[in-house]
From TrEMBL:
GO terms for molecular function: acetyl-CoA carboxylase activity. The keyword Lipid biosynthesis applies. Keywords: Biotin, Fatty acid biosynthesis, Fatty acid metabolism, Lipid biosynthesis, Lipid metabolism. The lineage of its organism: Bacteria, Pseudomonadati, Pseudomonadota, Alphaproteobacteria, Rhodobacterales. This is Biotin carboxyl carrier protein of acetyl-CoA carboxylase. Residues 88-164 form the Lipoyl-binding domain.
Amino acid sequence: MTDTRHEADVAFIKALAELLRENDLTELQVKREYGEDDSLNVRVSRVSPALAAAPIQMAVPAAPVAAAAAPAAPTAAPAAIEDPAAHPGAVTSPMVGTIYLQAEPGAAPFVSVGASVSEGDTLLIVEAMKTMNHIHAPRAGTVKRILVGDGDAVEFGTPLVIIE
């Protein structure tokens, strides 16, 4: 019985991967319930070629303008610093979802630029599949930039906030 379910689970996962590819999706997450205390949680994700190439495409147009004003070597460092995902203080999204900067409409935002945060403080919420996931500060510091807006859709790995 276990081997049969294992084979069925493998076929199910392969079908999800095929569905991901055919529909050009970046992520699928499914929970399959077998009984009261028995379930299978599956998350299949990939980086689409368009998403993988996007940071490169954004950085390339800036390089020729900077190259005219300065030598090539110094222009590489500012391009890397301007990419929020490469910033050492970037807090990235752990999932695909919708951003909420406050607990409820009309409430004060969790954080603002210039605010001091402690490790574990809630920075914002990512709603995924009707579940509100609080994103906590991984370390103490000062919020230097908030890179997303209320109601924005985000992908896995999208930079959300920069803490220094």
